[in-house]
Amino acid sequence: MIIVGLPYSEQRQMTMSEISGGSPYGASTIAGPDGSRMPSDNELAMARFQGNHVAKITTALIRGQVS
Q1: Long-range own/partner contacts, residues 38-42 (CB < 8 A, 24 or more apart)
Q2: What are the backbone angles phi and psi of residue 22, rounded to the nearest 5°?
Q3: CA angle 66, 44, 35 (to 5 degrees)
Q4: What would the pLDDT profile of 44-65 be if each residue is shown by its tens digit?
Q5: Band of pLDDT at residue 67, cut at 50, 70 and 90
Q6: Which pLDDT tens digit goes with each residue over 14-47?
Q7: Beta bridge partners of 26
Q8: Is the dihedral of CA 44, 49, 54, 51 positive or negative?
Q9: Hey, where are the domains in the chain?
Q10: Fewer CB within 10 A of the terminal residue: the chain, N end or C end?
Q11: Which of 50, 28, 24 is nearest to 37 (CA)?
Q12: pTM value?
């Protein structure tokens, strides 16, 4: 099993201008106790970035470029 999180180069996880999920372990959101909060644009952008990052790592593994 390979775990692919958000690299530290993904600067959106470091934002201090708003409360936001996301960490080097991966994209996430803060939903609140009743689930009423929807993911922010920042959280959605991190999720898209992580999806693309996982796809690139997978492609490299399939092609034998990563050991």
Answers
A1: 42/12, 42/15, 42/18
A2: 105, 135
A3: 125
A4: 999 999 999 999 999 999 998 7
A5: low
A6: 888 888 888 999 999 988 889 888 999 999 999 9
A7: 23
A8: positive
A9: 11-62
A10: N
A11: 28
A12: 0.81
Contact predicate 29/21, CB 8 Å: yes
Residue 28 burial by Cβ neighbours in a 10 Å radius (0-12, 13-18, 19+): middle
Q: Which tokens go with 45? A: 């952008």
Distance CA 30, CA 39 (A): 7
How many helices and strands (H and E) does the chain possess? 1, 0
Taking 3-state DSSP, the helix, strand and coil percentages for the chain, each rounded to the nearest 5, stand at 40, 5, 60
CA–CA separation, 21 vs 41, rounded Å? 11
Confidence of residue 13 (pLDDT cuts 50, 70, 90): confident
